[in-house]
Amino acid sequence: MLFCVLKTYLFLPFFFLSHFFAALASSLQFIQEPTNHVARENQPTWWHCVASGNPIPSYTWYFNDQPIRIGQPNYDVMSNGTLHIYSVNANSVGTYQCQVQAGGEIIRSSQVELQLAGKLYSMNEDLASNTLYSKEKGLLSCLIRGY
Asked: Are 98 and 108 in contact (CB under 8 A)?
């Protein structure tokens, strides 16, 4: 009788630990998902996608439902889940999605949109370097003379 009770108490911690580690191995989940993004034309941008899982997750990004391939021009999918777009242009505009895989389990973020920031004004004379993009604050001063 004492042996059965002792055996049960010795077995319980191993039982709970094995279930705990099994749960860890199968609990792939997002820590940070991408969100809609507005970027400036001809500028770089980054999207972050972070997940936890065991084994260490691998990431695949999709552009307009097509996987972004390693070495594809203008894109870099980093091992930490970040998508780097070297130079945003009209061809970069569309929907993006992050897929994460670990131990046979796969999860996908919701689809998010990349849009180009619209120029509100631009001057081509002395003030050519002054450009104001949407969602930016700015001050435009002008002098008006009249009779």
From this structure: yes
Q: Are 119 and 113 in contact (CB under 8 A)?
A: no
Q: 5 — alpha (psi -120 to 50), left (phi > 0) or beta?
A: alpha
- Per DSSP, 118 falls in state P
Cβ atoms of 14 and 48 within 8 Å: the answer is no
pLDDT for 54-89, tens place per residue? Answer: 999 999 999 999 999 989 999 999 999 999 999 999
Tokens of 25: 């191995």
The superfamily CATH assigns to domain 2-133 is: Immunoglobulins (2.60.40.10)
Token readout for 11 is 């077995």
Place of tokens 């008006």: 144
| Domain positions in the chain | 2-133
pTM, rounded to two decimals: 0.66
Residue 121 has pLDDT above 60, yes or no: no
Kindly report the length of the chain. 147
